[in-house]
Amino acid sequence: MLQGQCMDWDELPPENDEGCVEYKWRLGPEHSHRRVDRLATQMKFRLAEGSGKAFYLLGVRDSGFAEGLSAREHSEAVSVLMAAAGAADCILLLEALGCSTRSKKGRLCSVWRLEQRQAAVSKLSKQLHLCGSLADSLPRGRCRMEVAAPPVAKEMIEQLALGCGQ
């Protein structure tokens, strides 16, 4: 389903009520604080099911149909998802962003990895400490820290625009 930040949007099974994967077709500004709190509770359940990790697929119906969202709808859905993640003391990481191939051109779908904030901070802290320890052994003035990161968002968006016919 998800390999190397590439997603096969045409082969999604129906959503399972158990497990660490949740489909969300739309999450708009009409979602109240109460709805965000319910999403945060749901996130905690999905995290428990996935031993500390969960995946949220935006633009996907419960049937597994990747209908996609307009750019505006996608942005709104991400904002709601981030608010819920914050309420659940979690972080969201973009894993994949693509176009629905079975729907209108330009409709976006995305995969977000949800992790508990403390676990993610701890992991990053260990990586930075390791980099810092290595840097200590270099001659003064020759120290440079590098952190591996996924492809730059701008490049992803440009590629998406080309692939979606926008």
TrEMBL record:
Query: In its UniProt entry, what is this protein called?
Result: GTPBP2 protein
From what organism does this protein derive?
Symbiodinium pilosum (Dinoflagellate)
**Encoded by which gene?**
GTPBP2
